[in-house]
Design brief:
With 441 residues, this protein is of the alpha/beta class. It is built from 18 helices and 14 strands. The chain has a 6-stranded parallel sheet with strand order 3-2-1-4-5-6, with helices on both faces. Bound molecules: uridine-5'-diphosphate-glucuronic acid (UGA). One of its GO terms (molecular function) is NAD binding. It catalyses: UDP-alpha-D-glucose + 2 NAD(+) + H2O = UDP-alpha-D-glucuronate + 2 NADH + 3 H(+). Catalyzes the conversion of UDP-glucose into UDP-glucuronate, one of the precursors of teichuronic acid.
Length: 441
């Protein structure tokens, strides 16, 4: 099939590349000339495991092209994917200006039947607004479809190639058939393509992310209670996760959820509910609890040291990205933790396998002035008063624990991701303070 993908951000690039890999002809469009040039030169601006291999192959075999010319890209396309930014506006609602602008332009360009697909996460009712914006400028036949993506950063290629489900929101049979044909190669294992109306499809995306954010937050609150009553959240996780109605996944307590999706989507669905006269109380609590959870580790450090004055102390930080296998630091707990520690007078030595540069761009001047960035995990231990673990990169899971004693002033670890087994930590003679588990002193 001939497909145009408008927007070469994270979603557009992953979708375009993966569609090309299943044999389609893809033209990706972006208004950013430098980005298009970079992509044409074979450079991918994001870090995503597995993407480069299929990107290179699709380009080599001529199925993946990049242009700044929207008209050229959509001329022969049967399906046009809109993968455009929808940043949160001041009121918490997604800003649709980029999507509606392109919809208007498409109206002026299309002359034969097209399926126009919203792939970005957009508020309920956006398909109708896109339809109106296109229709204003054309008499050609077209359908607007909602097709939310459920990709996880760091596993996006895997998620795209083998989705647990594909959701297609359209009331047009013609569009549903084209979309189903496009997605069939990805669900050969029998996973469903679920066709529904546009509004339900738009809301499905928010409901999924809000449910997952709530699940994590619930476990974080259980962890907070564990700390008060002397229980261990690992045991609770195993004890409840084996109930298939609850499920084993997404039950890991820690220092809160971050990223570009959960925080934004929880806020957006909460706002949509409010706009429609419904007070979505549980999500209000989720947002408040998560905000506190992100810096809960700093409170534990204050309790340990018996003061909120950290001047004269240096802390090592392992992990800056909001989760492993990405350089994305949006809403990353490490950003907030670093700020709080520096505000209390501490100096930091920070290490992350991928996210140092993105972190530097996003953090404050105060943090930059008081942080040394190092290129391996060991260097972040040298002469520090304590280590703070903010992201569960695999390489942090099995360090030789004894080395903590060798390098650090004192082997004290504040672990926001519960990486180490408590019995092992006990034997190693370290001070180990984690989330929802008894502290080891
Ligand atoms: C999330 C969803 O998982 C995807 O399905 C969705 O497509 C995507 O948002 C999106 O809307 O685009 P992502 O933000 O990449 O994906 O990251 P996740 O792996 O879901 O993790 C989100 C946050 O939850 C991270 O901060 C992670 O550390 C935290 N988390 C996750 C926990 O604290 N505990 C867990 O058990 C799981």
């Amino acid at each position: 099939m001939n497909i145009a993908v408008v927007g070469t951000g994270y979603v557009g690039l992953v979708s375009g590349t993966c569609f090309a890999d299943s044999g389609n002809d893809i033209t990706c469009v972006d208004i950013d000339e430098n980005k298009v040039k970079q992509l044409r030169d074979g450079e991918i601006p994001i870090y995503e495991p597995g993407l480069k291999t299929i990107f290179d192959r699709s380009i080599r075999e001529g199925r993946l092209r990049f242009t700044t010319d929207l008209e050229e890209a959509v001329k022969d396309a049967e399906i046009i994917f809109l993968c455009l930014p929808t940043p949160p506006g001041a009121d918490g609602q997604a800003d649709l200006s980029a999507v509606l602008k392109v919809a208007g332009q498409l109206g002026k360009m299309i002359t034969d039947y097209k399926v126009i697909v919203n792939k970005s996460t957009v508020p309920v009712g956006t398909a109708d607004r896109v339809r109106e914006a296109v229709a204003e400028n054309t008499d050609a036949e077209f359908d607007v479809v909602s097709n939310p993506e459920f990709l996880r950063e760091g596993a996006a290629v895997e998620d795209f190639m083998k989705p647990e489900r594909v959701v297609i929101g359209t009331s047009s049979e013609r569009a549903a058939e084209l979309m189903t044909t496009l997605y069939e190669p990805f669900v050969r294992s029998g996973n469903p393509i679920i066709v529904m109306d546009e509004r339900s499809s738009e809301l499905t995306k928010y409901a999924a992310n809000a449910m997952l954010a709530t699940k994590i937050t619930f476990m974080n609150e259980i962890a907070n209670i564990c700390e008060k009553v002397g229980a261990n959240v690992d045991n609770i996780r195993r004890g409840i996760g084996t109930d298939s109605r609850i499920g084993k996944r997404f039950l890991f307590a820690g220092i809160g959820y971050g990223g570009s999706c959960f925080p934004k989507d929880v806020q957006a669905i909460h706002y949509t509910a409010g706009q429609n006269g419904y007070d979505f109380k549980i999500l209000d609590s989720v947002m408040k609890v998560n905000e506190k959870q992100k810096v809960s580790i700093v409170k534990k450090m204050e309790d340990y040291y018996g003061t909120s004055d950290f001047s004269g102390k240096t802390f090592g930080i392992w992990g800056l990205s909001f989760k492993p296998e990405t350089d994305d630091i949006r809403e990353a707990p490490a950003l907030y933790i670093a700020e709080e520690l520096v505000e209390r007078g501490a100096k930091l030595i920070a290490y992350d396998p991928e996210a140092i540069e993105t972190f530097k761009k996003a953090t404050t001047k105060e943090v930059l002035d008081n942080t040394t960035f190092v290129l391996n995990q060991q260097d972040a231990l040298v002469d520090v008063d304590a280590l703070v673990i903010c992201t569960e990169w695999n390489e942090f899971r099995r360090p030789t624990i004894d080395r903590f004693q060798d390098h650090m002033k004192k082997a004290v670890i504040f672990d926001g991701r519960n990486l180490y087994d408590l019995n092992r930590a006990k034997k190693s003679n370290i001070t180990y303070i984690s989330v929802g588990r008894p502290s080891i002193n």
